[in-house]
Each structure stands twice: as C-alpha cells, then as structure tokens.
Amino acid sequence: MEKFSFKDVLILFAGTIITIGIAWVLLTVTGFVPREIGKLFFEGAVVGQRNILNTLNIATPYILTSIATVVSFRVGMFNIGINGSMYIGGLYAAWAGYKFTSLGHIPHVSLCIAIAIITGSLWMLLPALLKVYAGVSEIISTIILNFVAVLFVSYMANGPFRADPIAPATPRILETAELKQYFPNSQFNSGFFIAVIIAFLTYFILKKTTFGYELRSGGDGLVGFYPSRYSSYLGIPSDRSAITGMLISGGLGGLAGGIEILGNARYFYQELLFNQGFDGILIAIVGKLEPIGGLIASLFWSALRNGGLFVDYKTEVSREIVVILLSILIFFVSAQKLVSSLERFKFVRKLDAFFTRKIK
Amino acid sequence: MTQKNIETAVEVKNITKSYPGVTANDSVDFKVLKGEIHALVGENGAGKSTLVKILYGIEQPDSGEIFINDKSVEINKVDKAIELGIGMVHQEFHLVPSFTAAENIGLGQEPRNSRGFIDWDKLNSEVSNIAKKYGLDVDPKLRMIDASVGIQQRTEILKTLYRNANILILDEPTAVLTPQETDELFEVIRSLVDEGKTVIFITHKLREVMEISDRVTVMRDGKVQGVSDTKNTSPEELAKLMVGREVFMQVEKEKAKPTEKVLEVKNLWVHDARGLLAVKNFSLDVHKGEIVGIAGVDGNGQTELVEALSGLRPTSKGEVIFDGKNIESFSPRKRRRAGLAHVPEDRANTGLNLKLDIWENLVGTSYFRSPLSKGGIISMKNVVDHSNNLREKFDIRTPGVFVRTGSLSGGNQQKVVIARELSEDPLLTIASQPTRGVDIGNIEAIHKQLIEIRDSGKAVLLVSAELDEVMSVADRVAVIYEGEIVEWVNPKDVDQQQMGLYMAGIKD
Fold first, then answer.
1. Do B238 and B265 share a domain, yes or no?
2. Residue B226 sits in which domain range?
C-alpha cells in the first residue's frame, strides 16, 4: 500500500486553498458574496444537530461503497460495478421488507440486510467467474452490468414487484423491516452504525487475519494486478481470492443499497437514483485504499456535499457548483505526479523525511 | 595510448542529488579523459546509476557543474545529452522487437527521400557502413525478435553511434552475455576507442574492470571512494573500496560430503508459456550435503525447469521424486511443507509482493501456523518478533519491518526472500539467480548461506547465469542448453573457455 506522507497533506491543503480560490472567483462572477456563501456552506456541513446528522446519514452509503472498492482493489480486481450491486441489494431489501409479514423487528431487519448482501454479492459472481475462467476484464463486464442492473430494477419495480397503481414502485416496507430513525428532524438511522462497524471490521480482517492476508497477497495496489504470481508462488489459490474479493465487494455494495431502502427511502421506486457506487471509487482512492481512510474520506465528502445541499436550499447558487468544486479537489488529491513533483522543492523533501521518521 | 591525451571528455564537479531520505550523489567529482575506457564501479545503490542518469539528462542534480569537452553545460533533458554527443546503452534494451536492426537504429531520425518518404535503402547502407567501421557485425535487415542478446546489444550501440555519440555510457553491458559474447563486446569497445570514442563502462564485475578499462572510479554510499589507473590497482583493492571492508573474493568451502538422494528428476519434459518445449528429457539427482549447479545462458529452459520443480508450472512428461515421494500433484504450499524451498529468479513479481510491508513478505510461508496466527487471526506480536529475528539473522537493512518492501534495495529485497525461504529449514533449497542485481557485499553473504545449508546436511540446487557464481559455489555443475544438459562438469576441472563452449551448446 501507498503510505500517507507529508506531501499528501500538503497537496490536500494546497488543493483546498486553490479550490476555495476558484469558488471565490466563480461566485463573484455569478454575482454572489463568497464570504456569506462560505459561511452557509460551513453551517450546512457541520453546524447544528440536524446538519451533522444529515451529513452522517449521507455518509453511510459512501462508507460502504468506498470500502467495497477498497476490498476489490486490494485483491487486485478493478470492480466498478458496485453501483449495480447497490441497485440489486436495494431492490431485494425492499422486496424482503414487504414480503415477510410475520417476523419480529430484529429477525426481519436482519433478514432484509442478509438478502441485500447476498443479492449484491451474487451480482458480482458473473464478472468474477468470467475474469478467472475466461480472462474477461472485470472493468468491462462490471460496467456493462451496471447498465443491466438499472434496467433490471426498473423492470422489476414496474412489473413483478409493482404495487402502486399510479407510480411504478414496490409496496412500502413493513415497520418491522425499518432501520430505526432516532430523531424527528433527520433521516439519520442505525444504518450509519452498521457502516462504521463494517469499516473497522474490514480493517481488522484485511490487516489482522490470515484470510485477509491471503486476499491481499495477490494485489494490494491501486491498479488491478491480478493475477500476481506472488500468491500462487506461496500456494495461495489466487483465483479463489479474486472471486472472494469480488463477492465481498458486491455484498458491501448490496448492503449500501439495502440500508438506503430500509433506513431512508422505505420503498423501491423506478426513478430511484443511486450513484454512490461510483463516488465510492473516488472516495476510496482519496482514502488511499485503506478502510479507515475510506471512512474518514466518506465523512469529509459528505460534509462537503451536505454543505453544498444547504447552500443550494438557502440561496440561488446552483448545486452543480459544489460538484465542480468537489471535482477540482479530487483532481488535486489524486494527482500523484503532482505529489511527486513536489520533491523538487528541498523543504518538502526535508519535511517529508522529518515526518516519515516521526511516524516510524 | 590514453596517457598522451589529457583532454577531458566529461567532468562533473561537486554533484549532489538527493531523494527523500537518501543522498544518492554526495559532492561527486568524476572525470573521464578523452579516448579512454573508464570503468565506474560500485555496489547497487552506490550512486552510479544516478550519476549517469544526470549525465544523460534523465535526472537533474540539486547542485554541481557538468563539463563536456571542457565546456560548462546544463543537461536538462535526454535530447540535450544526445546533442552533446553522449550515448547510453541501458541495461534493459529499448528496442522494438518487430522492427529490423536498421529500423530500430534510425527510429526518429530516418533519412527521407525527395518525396518525403523514408529512404530505406539509404538507412540500411548507412547502418552497414557504421557497423563495418566499428566492427559491429549486425545485419541491418534482421528483425530484433530473431536476434540474439549480443546482436541486440550491438544494435543499441549502433543506435548511439548513428546519433553521432562520442561518449558512450554502457550500463552493466555484460550481465546478459556469454563469456564469448563478452569477449566480442570487448573487441568492439576497443575498436570504438581506437576510432576516438570515449567509453564509460558501468559494472560490478571486477575481472572485467581489470581486463578492459584504462582507469576506474569506485563509488560507495553516493561518494567517490577512489580513482586510479587500472594497472596500478587490484581486484581486492577495488572490492575493499566498494564494500568498505575486506571482501573474500574466493568462496571458502570444504569438500562436499553428499549423503542420501533428496531430489530425483527423471526424463522431465516441460512446455513454456507459448506452448513450446522448454525442457527436454531432463534428468538430475540432488543429494543431501551438496550444491548442484545449473549453468547456462538465460532462456535455455532454466526458468521452466525451476517452475516445474516448485509447482508453478505443469510438467508434460517425466517424474519428480522428492524425499521419496512423487510430488507431481503437490501444490507449491504442499511442496514447501514437504521441505522444498524456492528462491525464484523473478524477485519483484514472484518472490515478493513489493506493495506489502516487509513483515508481510517475511511470513508468506508461515503466517497460517501457530504461533504466528491462531484461529485465523494473526498475532501481531509474534509476527513482529519473528520478522525482527529474521531481519537480524539475515542482516536485512531497513528502518523497520513496517516498511513497504518495494522501498528496499535489490539486495535487501533478496535477503527478505532468502530469509523467508530458509526460515522453514528446508531439505532442499532451489535458488534461481539468487544474486541477480545484488551487490558484492550481499553476494558474499548469500553464497555463505548456501554453503552453510549444505554443510548442515541439506541440499541446494543453484541455477545461475552468472558463471563465476556457479563455478565457485556449486560442487557439481550441469550445463544446460536449449532445455537439455550438454555436460556435467566438476567446477575444479574446467576452464572458462570450455564452459563458454558448453553454454553455447558445443560439446567437444
């Protein structure tokens, strides 16, 4: 794994400053007062109970999809089909939520979550098998499956699972299947805690178990290196690791979709739009492909998003401006060449060496 | 010849270049006279490559000055170096395999005819002329895919000459050659110098320094340790300068006392990745208490043989009996458990995962066993203790075991592989090119370890393209050529010339 260094922090800092500068110009040009917008943005992100809860609630699917990315990348598989798994997991969580009528709260929620994980995971079985046994690039097959997933859930919500005579949607899930919302002013729900537990669990499994070691032995990098000869040289069945990694990745995607349904939407409808599966890839890279890094980056990302939503809600500033700014920030964070070009400056080299020594 | 000429071709003064945490060149002064063969020697990581990269415009120094032909210059890109008449032949060739020699040589500077198309005839004849002038025997129309390594190297040299290079930098040019090809290369280098060229020759083989160079510069830890006329120095003195301590060039060992048979290979046939026969009807025995060597030029079936023995490649025909058991159906892990360790030739992608931390690579063969892990959960304390023990025992130079393996030097990476493989106390260690890219001090240590294994009553199968290595470490040597054993030799009874002929497949 690439390790964090002082250079990364410097780039993030510089990137933030430049992004703020660009925002300033954009806002001034479009006739707003940047200082006031900035204040609103900050308030929306992290000030007050309601805003904080909303930020955390938005973070839940990002945490899960970024960790899904972390798992697949570190096994050496370039899975970009997590969004598809999210749709599938979400759809079947909704189905299980209204279908099983005579269960208690805990068994029903657990069942729905299990079904979301299993269906999201199975969705990734095909690309994994195609990769291992036929050499089909998982990048291509998962992209295609993303499209298939959207069309499939749209058909199901409009066909077999449709309940509403006016809108193409499933029935509302039963109360026993709902993830608990604790506060009247926010949709924040217990799904967040599941996501945080998953982040720490993934860290533990990847880093501290023999199972995790075997998963990582073939990959552990940013780019898909599968199959690495290191694992087969040690006698670790690398094909099995690749399939397992994809299934876990898909399962986490399914879980993200399930929690969205059980905690927030409460039913599945045709126009439901998930894109956290794609953002999760970016977030995972920002988090340097570490589960805890993904957790922190998700919280940061959600704060920015929620700040943007708040600005959008309170002012005439278009929400798209936030997306532009986020993209610029991501650009800086992921510009590895930029990071290494900083080595040209002597003070950076010195500080880097200094901090590296400190950490060790 | 060179003493009369005192003009300098290259002079660098006070060059310093540092990377995070390392000073690769520390106030380096380096001077090459016009028309001389100047050897630049040093261990890996001594700063030789950084120095020539600076000369060739690949890297920029933090401070210092460069003079070419007594003129101060700034070489900020490779094009500038070429313009100044500097040519470089890299250790790994930069050739397009599907192009002919002439197409590779002219690439980017093809002569045009009046209609603006490439004038192939002119290119071919120009290449032939240069080749003839310097005694570089290359057919301009030979495609590189069909060319031997020696021819490819000559093509690389022609490429620099075609661009009017006067100062040639050759980076470890003999690493891939047979003794005969090396002799031919030396002929070429001499004729280049006779034609007024200057050659900077990077190597770590001291025998070659003594044979070919006029003067020699030794580097260690980014600093120049000494410069002298070759005839006034000795290999022992150079080795001492390179390593910073006394080095025993000759491997010290007692006579082998082989006991019972541990590995028996019977009429083995193996195909390579393209489905071609790589190992043909190969038979060999290895006994406890001996080191069996396999010598040969790279690419004569050694890779496939070792992969077949270690379980990474299926065999087509024949038997492999290890410790009395037919291990054909055994996975690599099961073979290890039976006592077969494998130090692979491809350290970076097979022997290690460079993205993992050092401790993770050190426990690759043992992580699933108590006390390193219990019930599938790794005991960090035991793993770190285990790793630190190995680090100490095998002298792995690293700030700690939580460091990315990829950040270690080649020699230290190899020590990680060897430490892991030997930590299991195997019956037989298959060591494939164990000292490739490893510096002199560490080579000595690795050779000692192999002999220690032998003396403790275990067996070693040493596969190496480095002739000196096989001949000095192994007790019996099989020479392999195109997948077959040409001859079994006793290293004491055969000279370099004879070995060279065997390695070229010529028997008597």
1. no
2. 8-243
Kindly list the distances between the CA atom of residue B117 and the CA atoms of A248, A284, B40, B289, in Å, as whole numbers in the listed order: 57, 51, 42, 66
Q: Quick one: B132 and B239 in the same domain?
A: yes
Distance from CA of A232 to the nearest CA of B (A): 7
Look at residue A5 in the predicted model and tell me its pLDDT: 65
* Among B249, B245, B222, B214, residue whose Cα is nearest residue B235: B249
Is the residue at A167 inside a domain? yes
ipTM over 0.85? The verdict is no
Domain identity same for B230 and B279 = no
Q: Number of structural domains, chain B?
A: 2
CB B174 within 8 A of CB B468: no
CB A98 within 8 A of CB A173: yes
* Residue ranges making up the domain that contains A134: 60-296
Question: pLDDT tens digits, residue range B357-380?
Answer: 999 999 999 999 888 999 999 999
Q: Which amino acid is at A209?
A: T
CB B20, CB A349: distance < 8 Å: yes
pLDDT at A337 over 70: no
Query: Which of A6, A204, A230, A239 to mutate against chain B (most B CBs within 10 Å)?
Result: A230
pLDDT tens for residues B238-250? 888 887 776 666 6
The answer as to whether B1 is a domain residue is: no
Of B18, B349, B378, the CB nearest to A230: B349
| Tens-digit pLDDT string for chain B (508 aa) | 444 445 889 999 999 988 766 788 999 999 999 999 999 998 767 888 889 999 999 888 989 999 998 889 999 888 899 999 999 998 778 888 889 999 999 888 888 888 888 889 999 999 999 998 888 888 899 888 888 778 888 999 999 999 999 999 998 888 777 778 888 899 999 999 998 999 999 987 788 889 999 999 999 888 999 999 999 998 888 888 887 776 666 677 888 888 899 999 999 999 987 788 899 999 999 999 999 999 988 778 898 999 999 998 999 999 999 999 999 889 888 999 999 999 998 887 889 988 889 999 999 999 998 889 999 999 999 999 999 999 998 888 888 888 888 888 777 888 999 999 999 889 999 999 898 777 777 888 889 889 999 999 999 999 998 888 888 899 999 999 889 999 999 988 888 778 888 887 887 6
Residues B206 and B292 placed together within one structural domain of the fold? no
The CA-atom distances, in angstroms, between B245 and each of B14, B50, B223, B239, B241 are 25, 23, 16, 8, 7
Q: Do A3 and B355 touch (CB under 8 A)?
A: no
DSSP notation for B231-269: GG--HHHHHHHHHSS----SPP-PPP---SEEEEEEEEE
Look at residues B212, B243, B274 and tell me which one is the last residue of a structural domain: B243
Residue B3 inside a domain? The answer is: no
Q: How far is B341 from chain A (nearest CA, A)?
A: 10
A270 occurs within a structural domain: yes
Domain boundary among B173, B208, B243: B243
Instruction: Note whether B124 and B158 are same-domain residues.
Output: yes
A32: in domain? no
- Cis status, amide bond into B371, omega within 30 of 0: yes
Count other C-beta atoms under 10 Å from residue B496's C-beta.
14
Cβ <8 Å between B399 and A360: yes
- The answer to whether A201 contacts chain B (CB < 8 Å) is no
Residues B270 and B233 in one domain: no
